[in-house]
Amino acid sequence: MALLQISEPGQSTAPHQHRLAAGIDLGTTNSLVASVRSGQADTLPDAEGQHLLPSVVRYLPTGEHVVGFEAKAAAAQDPLNSIASVKRLMGRGVEDVKTLGAQLPYSFVPSDSGMPRIHTAGGDVSPVEVSAEILNVLRARAELSLGGELTGVVITVPAYFDDAQRQATKDAAKLANLNVLRLLNEPTAAAVAYGLDQKNDGVIAVYDLGGGTFDVSILRLNKGVFEVLATAGDTALGGDDMDRVIAGWIMQQAGIGDDADHKQMRRLLRDACAAKEALTDADSVALNIELMNGSHWEGALTRAQLNELIDPLIAQTLSPCRRALRDAGLKVADISEVVMVGGSTRVPRVRERVGEFFKCSPRVDIDPDKVVAIGAAIQADVLAGNKPDDEMLLLDVIPLSLGIETMGGLIEKIIPRNTTIPVSRAQDFTTFKDGQTAMALHVCQGERELVSDSRSLARFELRGIPPMVAGAARIRVTFQVDADGLLGVTAREETSGVQASIQVKPSYGLSDTEVETMLRDSMTHAHDDMGARRLREQQVEADRVIEALQSALATDGELFLADDERARIEAAAAELDSLRRGDDHRAIKRAIEAVEKASADYVARRMDANIRKAMAGHAVEDFK
Amino acid sequence: MSVDLKQNYFALFGLPVSYTVDRATLDQRYRELQRLVHPDKFASAADQERRIAMQQAAQVNEGYRVLKDDLARARYVLELRGHRFDDERNTHQDPEFLMEQMELREALGDVREAADPFASLSGILEQVDARLAALSAELDAQLVADAAIPEPALMAVQRMQFFRKLAQEAQELEADLEDEAG
């Protein structure tokens, strides 16, 4: 109960124990894991000394799979079973996949959940499961090099990820058996990595061009507080697109037709990527392309030609930069620094154009591939409780407006983009028929006016509205976006006080039941036991609750509690303590809830007193 | 003494109820409050505390949003003084103001045809910003006394709303023009 643990700086409550935590950058092309060791955040290498893990999973007919370099190496020969760039499919629906399908050479099979599955020799897999395999490898790597089980992780996501994409990422973590302390926006993570290094206050821009996503965030730094003022981006724009335009140019030059097969395409993309990378240092690169008939085409790509090819893509990133500035209410002159993030910012032309745009030379001193994972590791270390006196605080925003469908397929915005999270907004609805007891809500995300132009997030069905005449019911629906950027909805009929129940049908994600089923399946494979896992989770939570409660009671139980209240809380805690030793995870859960219920007022009083104490220090006559 | 989520934002930030707010103090209080209540400070806490922290942090964010914005803050102060806004009904505005509005709208409509659309747009935006600043100064003077709601303050708020809308449209046009120019 950390709420009960608010302490003065330097006055940590419990004897300190270092908790193992890691930051994970789950990238389109490559993924990384980093951790803070001896005060230093570093990415962790595998046994061969490789830090980057290619985000490729290859499914074999035997039911086994391989992840990383081995899978990447096989991708050209076995494109249909080697799943790369799966991040582009996270939280996407069957319709989106049709658009992306031309770029991603997989066989898709529709599924019940609206989330497409990919057909492989090892069976059909969802993008969430593919991501979970990548996370599994990184978790194992971290646990091996840190020498113990991870308490929690921070996983980064593009700032411009919508709710469905974030939820899918969280589901993947759950499948990989990871405790997610926070989903952190990639540009914010990069700012942390730079900010803590520099201790500079001011307004910075983070330009993050990865393999498949682009983000730009404008942040104000002030004594350890990183306040995101605005963010913008494109979740389907990155280095992959550069490779594609280069491959297209090669095809044109070499006379390769549009009928090139998957293998040929994969090889072309690989060669295009290699040429792009070589042109970071060289002015010209020789090309030797194997054609389908076995003959070879030879040619060259110059940097000038490359620049011409990718200029339109770079221009596409500058429009979000302008929008972010405008939303932040700032001008280019207000930006003191620009930080470059993502492998694609190695391309000299990108640095040049971004420098011209922001009128300053971009910062590249931290490896653009590693900077996000390093920032995530720093945040994970703080969230795990290893730095109780740390001043760092990250205040992020929601990247896209949230709204609900109204008459005529229009969207009414409830929470506009770039609102600081967490945020909570309520909206009142009423019934339009006599005796109506249910109501449907369609939640969308995006900036356009029409539902058809926006991302459908979920359909909520409210039930249990007391029957009344039309228009008499007042149903207050509260939309809450948490610090991970994830939406939650609650509803209540105000005249009767009835809590309406909500059934959520995510438009593209997996339902909780589906995640649970997958988890159970994966457990069976791992010879683990679901019940044992649940029990362990509840016991940890019980310990947390008891420890925090005792320390709080010792500090100010006298001050805030009447004797009978205290007796009730202590009785509930004693009951929990005895059940905690048993093996019934449901009973422990109920006992935890009982303690929480008994201590709810106490917790609230302490919180309130803390705020008052802090603000009272400012001596204001109006403060009552 | 329980946490009152409907607690007035000025009290939450330890500030007197007033239209005039020192921005630096407000910013500093905001950071101080978030350091106390942000869910990240409760990352390893029990679910209940995390929920409460989230509600508190959302409340602090909402308060900050209202208090740092001239228009939202003016409306909030007037509402605290008992005024109920009816956005359907407009206060009577004098002809000069209405004329200026029309002229600005026309100018905005002509931007695309202007020799230098960007220069013409920034001219409009400067004019609107100057008007907004003047209205804010007017509210500083109007909303000092307690309790009473001066009619000119209501009029100023409504004008502010007009200019805000205009500024927003001008910015959207600027965004479109910039994107078209590449």
Helix content of chain B: 55-70%
Beta content of chain A comes to: 15-25%
Using DSSP, what is the number of strands of chain B?
0
- Class based on secondary structure composition and strand pairing of chain B: mainly alpha
Please provide the ordered H/E string of secondary-structure elements of chain B.
HHHHHHH
Describe this structure in words.
The complex is a heterodimer of chains A (624) and B (182). Chain A has 14 helices and 27 strands. In chain A, a hairpin with a 5-residue loop joins strand 5 (56-59) and strand 6 (65-67). Chain A has an eight-stranded antiparallel sheet, with no helix packed on it. In chain A, strands 1, 2, 3, 4, 11 and 12 form a six-stranded mixed sheet that branches. Chain A has a five-stranded mixed sheet with strand order 18-13-14-15-19, with helices on both faces. The longest helix of chain A has 32 residues, at 585-616. Chain A is an alpha+beta fold and 624 residues long. Helix content of chain A is 38%, strand content 25%. With 182 residues, chain B is an all-alpha fold. Chain B folds into two domains: 9-68, Orthogonal Bundle (Helix Hairpins); 95-181. Chain B has helices at 9-12, 23-37, 47-68, 70-80, 95-110, 117-142, 151-181. In chain B, helix 2 (23-37) packs antiparallel against helix 3 and helix 4 runs antiparallel to helix 7 (151-181). The longest helix of chain B has 31 residues, at 151-181. Chain B starts with 8 loop residues before the first helix and ends with a helix. The mean pLDDT of chain B is 86. Chains A and B meet through helix 8, strand 19, helix 12 and helix 14 of A and helix 1, helix 2, helix 3 and helix 7 of B.
